[in-house]
Amino acid sequence: MRxxxxxxxxxxxxxxxxxxxxxxxxxxxxxxxxAVAAAIHNMTIRGAPAIGAAGAYAMALAALQSPAQTxxxxxxxxxxxxxxxxxxxxxxxxxxxxxxRLLDLAYHLVLPNMDDLRSALLAAAxxxxxxxxxxxxxxxxxxxxxxxxxxxxxxxxxxxxLAAVDYGTxxxxxxxxxxxxxxxxxxxxxxxxxxxxxxxTAWELMQDGIPMTxxxxxxxxxxxxxxKVDVVLFGADRVAANGDVANKVGSYSLAVLAxxxxxPCYSVVPTSTVDLNLPSGDHIPIEERAAxxxxxxxxxxxxxxxxxxxxxAFDVTPHRYLTxxxxxxxxxxPPFTVSLRQxxxxxxxxxxxxxxxxxxxxx
Length: 363
Ligand code: MRU
What we know:
The protein folds into two domains: 4-137, Four Helix Bundle (Hemerythrin (Met), subunit A) (Up-down Bundle); 141-350, Translation initiation factor eif-2b, domain 2 (Rossmann fold, 3-Layer(aba) Sandwich).
């Protein structure tokens, strides 16, 4: 099952409500782009590529909702929708990347009428979602090549099907290694405060029958020091041009510990997560979330009422701690300023070639 899809019967965007997993599977539907923005903010849907797809579908919804009779007035409504959507979560660049892609399309497409333009935007959102799955499989194949048979993999947060449209980024690499016949085992960080590891990664791996063990976040260092970890894998919400990586808070500590213990550490990202406009991780906005995510676990208070809290959702891992960055164009190695740019260019060239093949097939 995909994480998010278009429900053509009801003309709604439908998604798995990730706040309820692993206890309940509910599939809410959305007919209003503002409600999708709220769902991104409250983490009904989360994970960088998944919120990118949600942003694209929400832009298609905004086009359907708009009463505009001309392209110019539709563009004004789409720009307003983009502003609301991009503000829903600031760190993952995939969101603004996806909303921009739909806005650019609305600007450039030449079509006879507004209904055709609206249909083209929906088709573009569907294409973006399909491409995400394809990209994850390519990343998985490249990444799995460096995962050894018998590896113990330490994984942070949730980077699986749920964090993307399907298959996943870092968990996609795990899945690909298993598909290649490698016997791997995953140490699953519970990932406080929202427990994406305990709730989501554990659920996905158990569904697939992939051997795993859940650990408290602060057990990772001991496991590394005692030789029980062969490789550390995590995703990213934004990668700066120099290879600094913003990912779920706690990733930085893991990367430093990995280097201290001589363990390779990779971030696994689609090139849409690479933001060449930012020279380093110091420029990546770090989302700060509500205090109750820290003071409460599963709705139960674990801290005194009114305690002061700082709830940073992400941290930045400086590039010197990363062995490589796995992308759908291959594994990027230092110097990342060169290899990431090459990967971005290769991805863009591949998409251009696929588009002209499909145009040729249609004509
Ligand atoms: O706050 P979340 O759950 O959206 O954070 C998600 C992560 O940090 C993932 O590691 C990241 O989005 C990359 S996974 C595809």
